[in-house]
Design goal:
89 residues, alpha+beta, three-stranded antiparallel β-sheet, 19% helix, globular
């Protein structure tokens, strides 16, 4: 609901979504797909935390670095570092 109507999401080339339909997706569709695929693997009773570890802003460009931690089904620990770049018009 907070995305601009023309918002785009670009997947890294290594992501399976890139091979499926290319790197650039409508942001709402991409986020819906991520939530459906990725979050469905997490233990519904366990916590999922996101820690913002850094930001950088230059003009209309924003970079956010963060770490997500949780537990997936079967008890395996999930910890992944992310870097998200946003262009704001």
């Amino acid at each position: 609901a907070h995305l601009a109507p023309h918002a785009q999401f670009r997947f890294a080339p290594s992501m399976p979504y890139s091979a499926e339909r290319g790197r650039d997706w409508d942001a709402r569709e991409a986020l819906s797909r991520i939530v459906d695929d990725l979050f469905a693997t997490f233990d519904a009773d366990g916590p999922l935390t996101v820690e913002l570890t850094g930001t950088l802003v230059e003009g209309h460009e924003v970079a956010a670095q963060y770490t997500a931690r949780g537990t997936v089904r079967g008890g395996r620990v999930y910890e992944n570092d992310y870097l998200m770049r946003l262009s704001i018009d």
